[in-house]
Queue: 2 jobs
Job 1
Amino acid sequence: MTDPFASFVVDAATQAAHSAARMVAETPRMHYLLLMIGTRGAGKSHLLKAIRDRLTGSEPARTAELVGLGRLAQHVQSRGLADAGLALRERLLRADVVLLDDLDLIERQLPVQSFVFDVIESRLAAGLATVIASSRPLSRMTGLDGRLVRRLRDASTVELNLPGPVARTVILERRIAESGVPVAPRLAAAVGGLEFGSVKEYLGALNRILAVQQTTPTPIPVDDALALLGLEPAQPSHPAGDGPPASEPESPGEFDAFLTEVVANVSQQFDQWRGRLREAISHWQAQGLRTRRLEQALASDSSGDPEPIVAAFGHDAGELLRLAAEARVIAPDLASAEIFRDPDQLLAARHLVTEARARRAPLSAPLPDLTLARLGVGVSNRVALETIAAVIAEPGVRHNPLVLVGPSGVGKTHLLHGLGNALMANGLSPIACLSAHSFLGELAALKSSEEIAQWRARYQWVAGLLLDDVHLLSDEGRANAELLQIYAALEESGRPMAFTSARSLSELAGFDPRLLTRFEGGTVVDVGVPDREVRVAVVRSLLADTPAAEDVGLIDYLAGRSADSVRSVQGMVHRVLAEAGAERLTPSTAFARETLEAVETKPVRPLRRPPTATSGILSPGMGVVRSREKMVLEWPTPADRLLAEFA
Amino acid sequence: MPLVNFTAREITCKLVYYGPGRCGKTTNLQYIHGRVPEARRGRMVSLATQSDRTLFFDFLPIELGVISGFTTRFQLYTVPGQVYYNATRRLVLQGADGVVFVVDSQARRFDENVESFQNLQENLLEQGVDIRQLPLVLQYNKQDLPPDLVLAPTELDEAFNFRSVPSLPADALHGTGVFETLKALSTVVLQRLAARPPTL
């Protein structure tokens, strides 16, 4: 940020005020009252603004309040001080520096003077600095509150006098450069060498020349330019017959003097407008924001009243800062995004935060108990485990997506959750791990398109997606479409995905073909019926905390029994443990055999109708819906089977 | 607010001279007209009766040239002072950016001044304008008359200037204080170019 004091031209006449102002800007929190006195246009307001900009620009946490006392007086006259006055007082007492301009405009305004006195006293008591500017010394003001006069007499007083010709020339050269109007060389020096009472009048005179210069491409010679200021003998103007006064004009240059005043006033007002833009630019840049829109308005000089632009920009900037603050909390990885520094990208920032909010909604995570370490390893799942290890080593790069296919109960879910837990342990978060059933349930609960968009965004933000029993999405068009969108987002950014299916991909019907081709494009691994090795591991794992943990005979017996799924093995072990627990016995091979084989030899109720043979597998045909893998346990006795064969 | 047309890059200020009959409003405009270079002034329109009293209003447009890229013009109006032309006064007051209230300093005209000043406030109020919000300058005219005939500016301040607006003694016939008055009003009016409601 440029030094706001750099634009102030310093010479012997303004050195003291400039130094005092710099000191306040650099050491704001001090017991200090500075009274700055100088004629109108001498640069008092310039210095006050420089103090404010320097203070707030270098340390955004600092506050400086600049109050025009003339405007405050107008406000008090029309509305009184009331509540707004209290609020202003609070603000002024909190600020690091208070800058009060135009003290001379509150002559005979006792309520305002009383307010100012109170503010000064309170700030001095709190050890805070206050700067007051006046275009007239105290001795030449009337109608001032005696307390205020006494207090101000004790203030450090600095004067701004009219700068010398060299400094005036520099000021005028800057104005010429700002205007962009080509002028004759040495014009600034010529005007700066004239005798006027204030810098404002010099600027006014120059503005008059520039106004004429704008109408002609050729630089007006310096002498002609000075003639425009009425420096040559003015021709008396006596329009005939139009009713001018009969007397001789008292001052033939009256109109020129009036015009100079008007030009200076108008220029000053437009400078204020430009100043308003510069002020806004400085303010928002200090907050770390880009200000391209304001800079364009400043550069164009044709965009009209800047207040709506400043207000609109302020509105956008304020919202952007709020969004950035929220992003720091809910999505620290996004908070440094460039769009949070550019109010022109507010829409994108809104979108980003909306997504971040969605991302924070709770997700189904992998079950912490289902780790790979607790999984029984055998021939039937070794390939799956090796593939999973590769995924963990390079998530999203290798085997993406991974599709585990196998009948129910063979350990696909455990493998999936185990993969999820391992990815999370490696720092990937969040990992969404859920069943297709839950996926469908969540989707069915969404009412509005906005809810769906947020739900979708939540999954599009995850670090990895693990979906169990994906075959359940068969004939679920809407779920297929949503999964396809989520899939595309994750695939594009190389995030890992894994699915399990109880049916092979070729058997999946009612699926969006685009999903199927994506599944097929990944790595499809079959998970087989648990082999003896797996069954031993499962039995060992389940008996681990029981008195039979080291009973090799029992482990061998249980693992040796026929079972087409891990779930069957678990069922057997749990039954034996439950029976033993009920009878307060230590499980043994004999006890297990008695328990399990007794179950198998229980008389089977006669079938109401014989089971139906399909593809060599018999369904129970007992009017109960059961999965085929359960049939092995319910296999009919040999007598029933013979009857069925002969039926 | 002064009319600022950003598209056409023009600033137009309407300034109205108000006061009782024969206080010197038209004289002010005539003096100004006489001092403005021909190229910068429009024709002064003055609708007067045979006895030289303003019947409708005076109008003097002044072109001030291009200032800060804006073509700036002032339009000076007077109102008829006579009591029975109140409708015209209201019409002229409409959209005024600032008012010079010309006080006839003669002691015997004091009541007419007060009446006219009250009339100004009433007419502004009817247009929804609070006189406290409108740029106002008081001109104490005819201060060149013998002191025993006129009230001093301090006395007139006591009577009229209860909100400390700029007030100037004047002798419009000879031009004393005429441009000072116009300058004072234009300063206040132009300061409102960038004015926003004070933030408290």
Job 2
Amino acid sequence: MYNNMSYKTFKWVRIFMAMFIAATVSIAVTIENVYLALAAVIIGMISMLLIKKNVKEVLVDEMVNSIAGKSALMAYSIAVPVLAVLSLVFMFSNLKERGSDMYNLGIILSYIALGQMFIYSFFYYYYQRKYGRDGE
Amino acid sequence: MENKIRMLRAEKGMTQEELAEKAGVTRQTIIAIEKGKYVPSLELAFKICKVFDKKIEEVFNY
């Protein structure tokens, strides 16, 4: 296998893969074939993982991880309150019509917000344990 | 935190890309450290010092 790919080549391969996935998903939507769309996404993800391993240059380092961590925290801090407020608005504005689409949308959004909070709490606890911030 | 990476690199005639490769990071990280915009971890600081064969206090000042 090609084991010495430069970052420049990798960038072109990444663009090509994105185009391939976009084109295949578009075709899948047009012909209403969900399996084709799923296959394209899965093949694309696996191919990108394999290709990343063959890039000779460093793609991810501590600064990239630091930036990703800060971005993730910022995204979480914005997304959860927005989802929570939206869910409350949808639910309370449709209290008389329980079971309506808007009321159900509010419930779905509140569960998504709760899910995000659960995932965040789980990984926060996990990394806290990993780095020994458990009182010892 | 200040550092003398740019000066030491110039002394050795080393490019940012070469230093990044030797330290195992991206060139963007070296640029950010040189500009003082990013403070490296202790591990990376030691790696950079090893490349220049210097003690940590000779490269980084706090």
